[in-house]
Amino acid sequence: GFEVVLARAGCSVAVAPGKSILDALLEAGIEAPYSCHEGVCGTCETRVLEGEPDHRDLVLSRAEHESGKVMMICVSGCKGKKLVLDM
Ligand code: FES
């Protein structure tokens, strides 16, 4: 598991192993836009301020994956212990 810090909301949520960031946010009562829940539509695209995403989506280009600046929170995770998101 890892921690997700929502920079603008000023709160953080723990993401249990095997759970998606999106589901952890929704279960914590935080509203986040999404549609497909499968990493294909792009609706849940979120800017990453800190931390290294573990990309599992089919939306972003390889260059965008390598930049680490945006991620799809419905499927992608974290390679470290903490992600800071612009939301
Ligand atoms: Fe469709 Fe995340 S909800 S890519």
Automatic annotation (TrEMBL):
<feature type="domain" description="2Fe-2S ferredoxin-type">
    <location>
        <begin position="2"/>
        <end position="87"/>
    </location>
</feature>
<protein>
    <submittedName>
        <fullName>2Fe-2S iron-sulfur cluster-binding protein</fullName>
    </submittedName>
</protein>
